[in-house]
Amino acid sequence: MPSIRFRFNTECQLTIEGGSYEEAYLRFKDFMHGETPISTQEGLEICPPEDPIIFFEVDDQTDYNTIDNFKGDFVEDIVANCSDDIQARIDHQAIR
């Protein structure tokens, strides 16, 4: 299952899975905009970071990519900030 791991300057790390990379990203976008909580566990509140810099890895990638200023757009935030081989993986998965 495609997954994207997001990391913040606070050393907090969050892995989101979805039916596609874009679906995982959209779940993260909803979290960042305060529309959908990441956890429904009572008493546990996870808030989006205040710093606009976000790091992310796609699946088993071993180095982080950087989103300098979260825009809320899959192509601008994820695809444009990945290496060519990761972009090809995302494109291949989107075709399915």
What characteristics describe this protein?
single chain; 96 residues; alpha+beta; four-stranded antiparallel β-sheet; 3 helices; 29% helix
Overview of the structural elements:
By secondary structure, the chain is α+β, with helices and mostly antiparallel strands. About 30% of the residues lie in helices and about 20% in strands.
**Percent range of helical residues:** 25-40%
Tally of alpha and pi helices: 3
How many angstroms separate the termini? 13 Å
| Count of β-strands | 4
Q: How would you sum up the global shape?
A: globular
Strand percent estimate = 15-25%
How big is the Rg? 13 Å
Largest sheet: 4 strands, antiparallel
Rounded mean pLDDT score: 84
How do the helices and strands follow one another from N- to C-terminus? EEHEEHH
Strand arrangement across the biggest beta sheet: 2-1-3-4
- Uncertain stretches of 5 or more adjacent residues: none
Q: What structural class should be given to the helix and strand makeup?
A: alpha+beta
Short description:
By secondary structure, this protein is α+β, with helices and mostly antiparallel strands.
